[in-house]
From TrEMBL:
Name by which UniProt lists this protein: Uncharacterized protein
Stretch list, region Disordered: 89-112
Amino acid sequence: VLAKYTDDEIIQLVRQNPGYGLLRMVSELYPTKNSRPTRDKNRIVDDMMFIFQEHNEQTGEDPFDLIQSTEFSTMVTEAEYLKRTGKKYLPKGAGRTTGKRKKRSEGGGQQNFLALPPQRFNWGEIEPAESRPSHIEKGFKHEYTILNLRFPFSKFWEMWMDGYSRGEIS
């Protein structure tokens, strides 16, 4: 149900980016456009969870555990975390308390260690979202803008040609 990526590509990206995090992966696959965040992020996550569940049932490999794994995170100090991520603040649940401490510029935040997930997204052989052609740009009619890659349309056509009714096919 994901318009730009097939199920196999999603699974391959999960294998190439263990420990990256599902929400961060969704942001990589569907980046912001014109400074606006990805719409329907929850729907995309639900679709990916469905793909993960199907893959787990078929192969026994759990892609969700792999993408959410903490084994690939490194423990770094607060100052190092801010430096590597380029963020202004620490993540929620980092355990910061109020009180006197050194400024970051003076080397503050050296006593508390945080888990830093992998910072580079590995695309491998898969083409990134920015360079993928959009089905909307190709000029498909409005009713065909969302291509559903899950339905076996050739099988439905074959059933129709064999004389099945629409009710029997659906």
